[in-house]
Design goal:
Shape: elongated
Strand content: 25-35%
Structural class: alpha/beta
Number of strands: 14
Radius of gyration: 24 Å
CATH architecture of the largest domain: 3-Layer(aba) Sandwich
CATH superfamily of the largest domain: P-loop containing nucleotide triphosphate hydrolases
Order of helices and strands: EEEHEEEHHHEHEHEEHEHEEHEH
Distance between the termini: 44 Å
CATH topology of the largest domain: Rossmann fold
Strand order of the largest sheet: 6-7-8-3-9-10
Amino acid sequence: MSDTILKFEHVTRKFGSFVALDDVSFDIKRQEIIGLVGPNGAGKTTTLKIIANLLKPHSGRILLKNSEGIFQEAHNVSQEFVEQGFLIDIPDFYNTNSWILLKHLAIIRHYPNHNIEHRVDQLLKFFDLYKWKYVKIKKFSKGMKQKLAFITAILNEPELIVLDEPQTGLDPESRIKIREYMKSFKERGKTVLISSHLLDEIREICDKIIIISKGKIIGFDTIDNLEMRFKTKQIRIDLYHPLKKDHEQEVLTRIEYGIRNLSGMISNGIEEETMLTYDSTDKSMTIYYDGSRENKRDIFKLLSEKFAEELEILEFYEPKRSQLEKLYAQTTGSTQIKSKELK
């Protein structure tokens, strides 16, 4: 990773008495893809609109750095500074066609005149809109308009692209295309800040995530580091047979006691977390831990050796999809985690 391209310094934004952003600070580096996640009303769109200069903060400042390493407040950034592309809120267009719209945008953004048509055609073809080049946009479906909006954001090959729910209304194939483009964008040294409710997409493409709730930054790190910090790493154990009903509670209590007494588990604060859940219908067990390789190894050894008679293990693995969802829910207060609940 190279140097910082965008800085939020103690930014606060209010709407009347409502505090949308409360003393928010973070840095984004060049060639990163950063996910911005949080519940509705958390401050995601406000954050993006401030970067886009559609809103002004009431206090604090936003700084952008150019290729010469000079920082400047975002609302004063001139054309020779960081080129930016934005997709904010639900896209809406004038009653024109794709070619006219994109040509005018390219001219406004000083894209080389002799390359404009080639660039427009290239993007329309990639996103399967080329045959609609001269068709009025009002005839486009919601998904087509969303793809066109994404094209407007990336048209001039900006250094920083800011996206608010870019995959809303898209079919799986179009989501894949946008994901591919964002990855290629990073490979070319660009930077992406993306707000999305699609947590699987965030996990797939982002280097780090910012978790925001009630206008405050709850966490900003790689997903793996956040999962370790908030103790949301999971081990899933699928069993050939459910536990015997008359010994179920006793076995679960012994397993949890054994796990809690593994080296390092107590010192990592796991004793305050939900450690173990069990689903007899699904014949599965979930263990929450700090994510360390040593503890994962010791948990497997404990279950396979000391509980060999009670547990016939079919699979032992980390369910990737559910970890980010649990992290999101736990850090934003979307759900309450019941302490020591054994299902």
